[in-house]
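Table S4 entry, LacI family DNA-binding transcriptional regulator.
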Amino acid sequence: MSTIKDVAALAGVSIATVSHYMNKTKAVSEATAERIGKAIADLDYSKDSMAAWFKTSQVPVIFVATPHADTSFFDDVSAAIEERFDRHDLSVLRVQLATLERMRRGGPLASLLQRAAGVVVLGHSDEWIEDEAALAAQLPTVMLNWDRLVEFREQGLVEHLDLGADMALTYLAERGHRDIGLMTGPSLPRAQGLLAASRKAADRLGLNLDPRWMVETSYDFPDARDRARAMLEKSPRPTAVFTFGTQFGFGVLQAAYQLGINVPGDLSVLSYIDCKQTEQCAPRLTTVSPSIPQIAAHVVARIVTLMTDREATEVTSLEVELTERDSVRSIRDI
């Protein structure tokens, strides 16, 4: 019985291209379609043969596993990664981290994972996989835990938290803000790094980071909103808040709305990390953020290297990007 691999070889294209042609998931050129159609006819191949091939060969699919999240950040990173893999004729199947764990432990979908081309795991301390070593031994794997900075660097990514915090506070200071609130995530290496960098920048700029305006929250949006509200309803309050994640920024925006505090009229808000939702909230959220396209390019290059049985030595120093939107205003002349 002919397989999809046989069709791809006869047509001179990749397996992924044949799959796109068969399932109409991506357009192929007229010439390519003719070659694939002829190969199918010559081999008397039927789509049902794909199931037989699926059971006996490696699936040309990369699994991308992400956690549940209150923002689109991980979805945005996954979409950028998927677009990059497509250039290598590798398809992406996105799954929740919990689904990946079930596949890793066995069950109906375990065979798909065993025959995958690679796995990308994105997450944080609240949701992660149990046995990283076992997964890495099984398949080419890139694992990015945003709370483990040492392991983040071990994957070849260098994120400049000091530059991001300095850029954010300098931006606020240049617009006349001196009383700055901070909303941090859980007290883990990323939050600690941003906090230390923020204090250093504040000292350099002569800013007031009053302890009453420094709020630690979990990753849950309702918790961020409630803690932001508790801080903002007291007097005095800061003129601006720098948050260490967009979900925290959204929490501040909603808390301000509930209290009748106008953003940016009465309070400016700036967040570290960007996501597509920052363009969809009101007001649109100003951010400083490591480059998502750079993260995606690095992940794909690393997986492709590992797939060729070579040691992955790529190192990417992430740029920090300031995106000005509507949530910060100048109070210098007020």
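The mean pLDDT is 90.
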